[in-house]
Automatic annotation (TrEMBL):
Protein name, entry field: Aspartyl/glutamyl-tRNA(Asn/Gln) amidotransferase subunit C
Organism: Candidatus Nomurabacteria bacterium RIFCSPHIGHO2_01_FULL_42_15
GO term, biological process aspect, one: regulation of translational fidelity
Stored InterPro entries: Asp/Glu-ADT_sf_sub_c, GatC
Highest taxon, organism lineage: Bacteria
Pfam family for this entry, one: GatC
């Protein structure tokens, strides 16, 4: 990657860059590409997992409602403004 590539990217992104910004961006891009190369060089098959990952199934169980569940009264108490069973909100255009 060189300055011409950075200039082409800036043109595509429709942004203006000073020469200093182009050099900084080039340096950043090179760092990113070097990091990607480093990651690509790791052979995943050789890496040992620290965790015993397996599917965790849980049966759906119907539980009785408790007073901690959401209810209209609890929501209305926490809402700043309400009228009857309706919650008042600001008009959005």
């Amino acid at each position: 990657m060189d300055i011409k590539d950075v200039e082409n990217l800036a043109l595509l992104a429709r942004i203006e860059l000073s020469e200093e910004e182009k050099k900084e961006l080039l340096s950043d891009m090179k760092g990113i590409l070097d990091y990607v190369k480093q990651i690509e060089s790791v052979k995943v098959e050789e890496v040992e997992s620290e965790y015993d990952i397996k599917n965790a199934w849980r049966e759906d169980v119907l539980r009785p409602r408790t007073k901690d569940d959401f209810s209209l009264e609890i929501i209305k108490e926490q809402f700043p403004d309400s009228e009857g069973d309706f919650l008042k909100v600001k008009k959005i255009l």
